[in-house]
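Entry type: protein chain
Record version: 2
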Amino acid sequence: MTAAVCVDLDGTLVRYDRSFDAVVAATLTDHLGTATDEIVAAYTDAFIDAFEALEPRPYHAGMDAALACAGGSPDVDDGAGTDTHSDALVAAYRDREYAAGTVSEATRNCLADLGADPDTSVAVVTDGVGDWQRGKLAHHGLADLVDATVVSYEVGGHKTDGDPYEAVRDRLAADEYVMVGDSYAADVEAAREAGFVPVHYEDEGPDLFAVLKAFL
């Protein structure tokens, strides 16, 4: 029997040593000299609103809101009219977010073992912006360990909408589809509704990726 094993990216394949809010706060502090709770909340609220609506440039929407809350302007006159404060902030935030993530050796070994099985395909299924998430996979050396990458922004809907799961079925033929992830709503409930076998990834207990291949 053939299987497609799908794995969430943020919080599952890549684990973080701090919250995303903490990464935002550090970025804003470096660039603005301050990052009050109100400024960070302005970023988060604007980002989430834009992200959930699949609006273009959600990170820029968040940084523009943070700048406005801090009393600054998103615009910078660089002589060419192309640079903005939010461009620099988004680039700095991206670098910090990538650096804050780690991938365990057990995770890498598990992906490699699954990929070596001729009856198993491996896919990353993630809610996010295409170039951002693909860049993260490349940064952590995971891109070559998977057969497909499905990103919600590229398929027109997040996992809770079901679109990424439909895209997996279109791209990978298999008798059984498995979804591994840390979000109960997106990776368990939505996956089950799409006909996938869900595996909920949690921090407690042994590293799931150390035993996943045997489990499957």
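Comment: The mean pLDDT is 90.
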